[in-house]
Amino acid sequence: MRRLTGNTGIPLAFRQSVVGASSGIDLSLTTQTPPSTRPDRSLGVLFTPKLVTVLREGYGARELRADAIAGLTVAVVALPLSMAIAIASGVSPDRGLYAAIVGGFIVSMIGGSRFQIGGPAGAFIVLVASTVQQHGVDGMLLATLLAGVILLVMGAFRLGGYVQFIPYPVTVGFTAGIAVIIFASQIKDLLGLSLHAPQPGPLFEKVPVLWHSLPTVTPSAVAVALGTIAAILALKRWRPAWPSLLIAVTGAAAVTALAGLPVATIGSHFGGIPQRLPMPSLPPLDWAHIEAVLPNAVAFALLGSIESLLSAVVADGMTGRRHRSNCELLAQGTANIGAALFGGMVVTGAIARTATNIRAGAHGPVAGMLHALFLLAFVLIAAPLAAYIPLAALAGLLTIIAWNMVERDAFVTLLRASRGDAAVLLVTFLLTVFRDLTEAIIVGFALGALLFIHRMSRAVSIEAHVPLVGEDRPDGSPADRTPYHPEEATDPSVVVYRISGAFFFGAASTVGAVLDRIAAAHKALVLDFANVPFIDSSAANMLHGLARKAHRHGVSVYIAGASPGVRRDLLTHGVRKPLVTYAPSTADAVERARGETIHGP
Q1: Which residue has the higher pLDDT, 475 or 112?
Q2: What does 241-290 look like in DSSP terms, one character per residue?
Q3: Rounded to two decimals, what is the model's pTM?
Q4: The dihedral of CA 215, 221, 223, 227: what is its sign?
């Protein structure tokens, strides 16, 4: 066994064993840590914010300086991005800033990740825009508030670990679909179109409206958008350490203002950004509104949990740290409640800003809190300058974001991997683009689960052993050195069935059909359960029916080598004496069965 040591200094031992082609690969990860140093998994530790952990480790001027630099760097990235995401979502840019300020501060202060940066994310553009169209801004705020409550409940019931069961093709598919929708939503501002009708949300309805508006293209808007995209790409290539997003957007604003270009700006479209943080207030609360926006709130919470925990996992991979998923969900829930009270849009963990935070040398959560304070300072001091930012520049910025969201290599790999993965990927992608994000995730998850069940059912094998002669064993093999009972191989009245793999409902019918065909000549049936790690109620109920049938026909049934957990589940479902007899091993069961067939019960 090979021992590895990660960045945290914890030795890891990996055990990989191939059970056989039919049963697949069993790969388990175990942590070998002395009992005195094992982490405390109590509720107090699981829900302790990482800020508390960092402060307990010791925090001084050096750490504060590192966090201040990282916080300022992230704020520079988040400033134009938060406004652009808000505008693309169908709300005013200040609501994106409020979400980044209030939500970002809370996520870092009480979250379960050292480096998580909270704020508005591009993945929510579709959901927020749809909610605003259906229920207005107040409905969006109420959905955000309810999503926060749902996330709190998820964290309190420790559901954070279950998010990992979302299949990888589903996440790749809906991320790519969201990217397509984001780009489609920016075509109007990229081209400076004057639409003859309100821009619809669904893609099928949006494309004809955009097509008929093509004669109204504004060349100066196209030039600003292309210039912004070119500046971002050039800076990322030749000056990657510079804040390319802010520089490109600021430059576009300066050119637009100085040249007097006839393009729409934040000032001309929204009237600028208020130079203050609003007082907290509740959105309109009544059962009719709650019932109406509840599906949107569930979608917010589902996507928010996936996005935030995925971002935390990315941060763990970059730093070697480990986040607390349920603590993070509590923080995300509180952050969304806080953002809604201050008029902000939905908040989640932002992968790109979290990665920027880490690369900028952040020490801990203080960097995220300072990033929010730097954004607040901008609102209080320099908000009037945002009025000069052209919408075409923000559209160009979001075009870059959409392009980066598509995991192109992963998309192509999944298409080539297997028909099942390709089907899950494409179904999720197409439903995201042409139907609904929540529906896409649910259908993709269900399809992925069905494919997994199908694969697992095929991994369960059952073999009958009634050999007439002893099995040939290589000289010197372990099997050659084990005791061999010739009588076991030559007694036709005893049949041994060896079951391998997880015995669950997907395989119960197949195994049951095999076992149901017990030959009349056999007086005893031995079921070798030594390689069955798990059995569910469907399989246990099938065995109960089989045992009752065998008992009526005078066939003795023995279950050998069952683990304590499997045996407990079988006993719970009535698989007990006098229907079956349990034996510690197959050899012991065969010996008892032979004795019974010779001497009688």
Answers
A1: 112
A2: TS-HHHHHHHHHHHHHHHHT----BHHHHH----SSPPPP-PPP--HHHH
A3: 0.73
A4: negative
